[in-house]
Target: Class I SAM-dependent methyltransferase
Amino acid sequence: MTGGATGAVPSHWAGMHRIWSFQGEPLRPPAEAVAQMVAAAGPAAAGRVLVLGVTPEFHAAFRDVTALDASAGMIATVWPGDTPTHRAVQGDWTQDIPALGPFDLCVGDLSLSQLAGLAARRVLDAVAAALRPGGRVVIRTVCRPAAPVTEDAIRAHADAPGFNFHGLRLLIALHLAQASGAEVPVRAIHDSFCRLFPDRDDFLRRTGLPPDRMILIDHYAASPLSWWVPSRDEVLDLARAAGLDARIAPSGTYPFAPDLPLLVATPATA
Model:
């Protein structure tokens, strides 16, 4: 995930570049997910591409890329570097997309998921307005499942052979969204983790997680942000309200992929 609103940078995204190397799948896109996104883009992938954020996995996936990110630190540290056909621009997704368009394709990885619902709608409005005729949107997004994500399941994941700390944080967000609604305060993920796993030394011993990775959860403690964790229908409703014909497609078969599907959308025909 990378920052989209300039005003949120000082309190959350300003320091994210320092710990970005600790982020991993599935909260960073696996190669399978990137391949699925390129396939879902179809012919639009060969055109001019807007990337929401500086997700480095997209740098090599498309041949003409403009990446828009609010954080100068993320651009300097995470982006693989500008070339004649690939550039990163500092700016706000809710305000600066029209000046950068038009585009054949807009892609993002968990981009809408890191915004409150109203801001996500504003971003989709801007994207829809900047798309060329026949353009396409492909965004991997977090969607809460119909089946309950219980606290017992979260605890069990910590003891499972396939333990994944990034997946654990995702499970906590899914559980909170099911319990309290689509907008999940980031600090609530931290607070829930601390309640579910009060003995950190025991948690680290059981999971084998390197202690320095705990900064990924502690970074949430003072964050003012909320993640948007909607149902699939809520994602589709938002896209359609922005004037897009939309569907949900799988992002692959990797662990947690069912909770991280693709929003695939095109401008609605009159």
About this structure: DSSP finds eleven helices and nine strands in the chain. Residues 6-143+230-267 form a domain with the Rossmann fold fold (CATH 3.40.50.150).
